[in-house]
Write a structure and sequence with these properties.
The complex is a heterotrimer of chains A (about 300), B (about 180) and C (about 350). Chain B is α/β, with parallel strands linked by helices and about 180 residues long. Chain B has 4 helices and 11 strands, in the order E-H-H-E-H-E-H-E-E-E-E-E-E-E-E. Chain C has about 350 residues and is α+β, with helices and mostly antiparallel strands. Chain C has one domain. Chain C has 13 helices and 10 strands. The chains are: A alpha/beta (about 300), B alpha/beta (about 180), C alpha+beta (about 350). Chains in contact: A-B, A-C, B-C.
């Protein structure tokens, strides 16, 4: 983690605000690749929050990092903290850039489909595609015009309440051989686009999506950490990873969203049902492993190797 | 004796299966046509939209690149490809399709016919079609080459390595390759 | 730090040699008296002063001679260095990483001056002083990866990360343990490792891949690997096997200590920031058995490792025919005394 200063906070739309971070001494920050995200740490009262946000600034520009945060009033509180409490001048801790949604540079063409705030990872990729001289097509889908966060001259804007909804089959059917598809947006939108592409014959290796899972709340449950000899209760609005950290038990992590695999943990005993919510484990691993960043448990007792 | 499927780089040949697609391309040699027929038997609709390239006596293997160019010129994503026949035909067709940008996930293949392999000599890089014995004699440099299971999808060939490098002249009797 | 560079060869008269310092800092790869595959990764963040782990890209007394040997190999076979078209950005990543690391770690040998994208690179040992435009290939005599790896010891595989896998899509490979970049280029992690016995069934590659996919910009990692080579030869490629194969049968009990070499690879793994690729340098260190046994602990331990190595591993590592003779030689340096844990000399 590096400590950076929040230097600018600019509203982009009624719900989306851009934040810029710079090194307190003006030192350059590590460059990154388009589609990368950073983990932002927020000290919200006595709760330590860590949320992942896509980097929207030019990946080659180390002068600062920019993210865009959509306010989610029903969320766990991270976006509310950023909108209400984060103010220019504040020092905040950010992780190193990590990319789980990189461009496939072997593609002959890149078809980028964004839904709402799902435009953010593409904002880092566009300068990269422009520099490479790569062929790309960007479809930016919003419900209403006031959701538009950025004006992108190269994008085709689809506003559903103005009747300019994207003709998905038409777009998918018109792509040359070697096109890769990237979609980022709501879980529903991602599923709809991927299902349609698969039905039209797109192979899985040409399909890419990114959805950050916020750890969804659930019933409290107990977990026994065999190596640390501790039994913890995971609260309703807490993830198991957060409960481990609060108890001083170290678990590695990167994305905290069920995608990177870093916090994968062995299950030693399970008297009950694991509620797997990650995108990482294979089906044949689900009876012996758990991703504590997003997954939960219902039952008597879960024993893990931590 | 050597056989395919034994290591992670060897090609995997599952029986052909119907798959959702916007366009279908099927490439087969004489032995492979039975697999194509079985595929279409499972899904006659697929047969109706398929373009079938049959490589054989009337369309020899060196016509494959031109035939594929034609078949791909108007193609769009949504194309699925089915390959059936000799290892050499599958390997060459797959290498050409990958080079054209088609993702590997859009290609299925089923091996039918002989155990002959397409080989690349690691020393002089000569490609040999239809190799049926191990060791075989490289048509480029004349060395006796051991037939490895290591396979390059990009080249569409298995690797041949000098069998008597350490003990020149000590070449075992060639054995027929088996499936 | 002053390094005197050896005048030596890795072919022909094989005048390669290790100084007393080089022997002492040799990365002996066995931390116990037996060997089995393992992922054995550790962070690559420095190490004992003077050891091969100290700098990010170790430069030693063999530097100039190794670069001369690489140039000979490339002039005979340019395909030892290849980069698929989508890997150019990763090549710039490699150049940037190596230049900034070497200029910081060896300021008396290398200098990097940056003015925006206008860069000046000074390599004193090789007499290079070039000015070029970062990210503009036309301003360098070679592609960026080839340019910098012609000036850096070790082989380099540059891996593209996609589909939850790593793809060997570029590399500079002139000192390899019998594998062909020209054949393996474009393969994924499981495909290029396919010829390695046992490891797949042990699940080693699955675990290693998960580890590698998660390597981040600030967490480079390293491991040691090893094999055996007759004569101090860097170019043991499959392409030139007919040239060096016969040498494997030239060992006698009398010349073995001098001609049989332990070959250790210091492998490291680096996230490349601009391309999200992974750099996999494979740095080769060679030591003759007669030099190795001058460290008593190493002589004892190496005897036990080689004697007890499973048959298929000895075959894969290419010394099965010579094993009895090697064990016989090493046994003279093993008095049966216990050895201390860890790789370092006592």
């Amino acid at each position: 983690m590096i400590q950076l200063r929040l230097t600018d906070k600019t509203p982009l739309s009624p719900r989306i605000t851009r934040f810029r971070f710079q090194h307190p001494d003006g030192a350059p920050l590590p460059v990154f690749s388009g589609g990368a995200h950073v983990m932002v740490e927020m000290q919200d009262g006595d709760i330590l929050r860590r949320n992942a946000y896509s980097l929207i600034s030019d990946p080659q520009d180390g002068s600062g990092y920019e993210i865009a945060v959509q306010r989610e009033d029903q969320g766990r509180g991270g976006s509310r903290f950023m909108h209400e409490q984060a103010q220019p001048g504040m020092l905040m801790r950010l992780g190193q850039p990590v990319n789980l949604f990189g461009l496939n540079l072997t593609a002959r063409k890149h078809l980028l489909i964004a839904g709402g705030v799902g435009i953010t990872p593409f904002l880092g990729q566009i300068p990269e595609l422009d520099r490479l001289g790569a062929d790309y097509e960007l479809r930016y889908c919003v419900r209403s015009r006031d959701e538009v966060a950025v004006d992108l001259p190269g994008a085709q804007l689809h506003v559903s309440d103005e009747g300019s909804r994207m003709d998905l089959d038409g777009v998918l059917g018109a792509q040359p051989i070697g096109t890769h598809l990237y979609v980022c947006g709501s879980a529903r939108m991602i599923a709809a686009v991927l299902d349609r592409a698969t039905a039209l014959g797109w192979p899985p290796d040409a399909l890419h999506s990114e959805e950050f899972l916020a750890p969804a709340p659930g019933e409290p449950f107990d977990v026994h950490c065999a190596r640390s000899h501790k039994t913890l209760t995971v609260g309703a609005h807490q993830s198991m990873l957060e409960a481990l950290e609060a108890a001083g038990i170290d678990a590695p992590w990167l994305c905290r969203g069920g995608a990177c695999g870093q916090c994968e943990t062995d299950v030693l005993a399970c008297d009950g049902q694991i509620d797997h919510r990650d995108h990482w484990l294979h089906d044949d691993e689900r009876n012996r492993k758990i991703m504590p960043c997003v997954s939960r448990f219902r039952g008597q007792l879960l024993t893990i190797d931590r | 004796m050597t056989s395919a499927h034994s290591i992670a780089s060897s090609p995997r040949y599952a029986p052909l299966e119907p798959r959702a697609c916007s366009a279908a391309l099927m490439i087969a040699d004489d032995a492979g046509m039975a697999a194509i027929d079985a595929l279409i038997g499972q899904n006659p609709e697929l047969g109706r939209k398929a373009t079938i390239l049959r490589i054989g006596a009337t369309a020899p293997p060196d016509t494959l690149p031109a035939a594929l160019d034609g078949a791909l010129s108007q193609a769009r994503m949504g194309l699925q490809v089915w390959l059936a026949g000799s290892q050499g035909l599958i390997a060459r067709a797959q290498a050409l399709l990958l080079a054209a940008g088609l993702p590997k996930g859009a290609i299925q293949s089923e091996h039918r016919g002989t155990a002959a392999r397409r080989m690349q000599c690691v020393h002089c890089k000569t490609l040999a079609e239809g190799v049926t014995t191990d060791p075989y004699t490289c048509p480029g440099c004349g060395r006796a080459l051991f037939v490895r299971d290591h396979f390059s999808a990009r080249l569409g060939a298995f690797q041949g390595v000098c069998i008597d490098a350490e003990t020149p002249g000590d070449i075992p009797e060639p054995q027929e390759l088996r499936l | 730090m002053t390094i005197t560079f050896n005048k030596e060869s890795f072919r022909g008269d094989y005048s390669y040699h290790n100084s007393a310092t080089a022997i002492r800092r040799f990365p002996f790869p066995f931390d116990r008296d037996e060997y089995m595959y393992s992922v054995n990764m550790e962070p690559h963040k420095g190490g004992r002063p003077g050891s091969v782990f100290e700098a990010r890209f170790d430069v030693d007394e063999h530097y100039v001679a190794e670069m001369e040997d690489r140039a000979i190999t490339l002039s005979r076979d340019p395909m030892r260095c290849q980069s698929l078209p989508h890997m150019t950005l990763a090549g710039w990543d490699v150049l940037e990483l190596i230049m900034t690391s070497k200029a910081q770690d060896y300021p008396d040998l290398f200098e990097l001056h940056r003015d925006g994208n206008r860069w000046r690179w000074v390599n004193r040992p090789l007499g290079i002083d070039d000015t070029f435009t970062f990210l503009d290939e036309t301003t360098l005599p070679y592609g960026p990866m080839e340019y910098i790896t012609r000036q850096t010891q070790g082989d380099f595989a540059v891996l593209d990360q996609r589909e939850g896998n790593l793809w060997m899509d570029a590399g500079m490979v002139t000192s390899q343990a019998d594998w062909s970049l020209d054949f393996d280029i474009g393969m994924n992690f499981f495909e290029w490792h396919a010829p390695v016995p046992r490891a797949a069934e042990m699940g080693i590659f699955q675990r290693a891949l998960k580890f590698l996919l998660n390597i981040q910009q600030d967490t480079p990692a390293r491991r040691l690997n090893w094999t055996m080579t007759v004569n101090p030869r860097l170019d043991t490629s499959p392409e030139t096997y007919p040239e060096w194969g016969p040498e494997k049968r030239s060992l006698t009990p009398e010349n073995l200590g001098q001609k049989q070499y332990l070959r250790v690879e210091l492998q490291s793994f680096w996230r490349l920031p601009r391309s999200n690729g992974l750099l996999f340098p494979i740095r080769c260190y060679l030591i003759s058995l007669q030099d190795l046994v001058t460290v008593p602990k190493w002589g004892r331990r190496f005897h036990r490792v080689i004697r007890d190595l499973p048959e298929d591993l000895a075959t894969y590592k290419g010394f099965i025919v010579n094993r009895p003779m090697i064990v016989d030689y090493l046994s003279r340096f093993d008095d049966g005394a216990p050895t201390s844990p860890g790789i370092w000399p006592d």
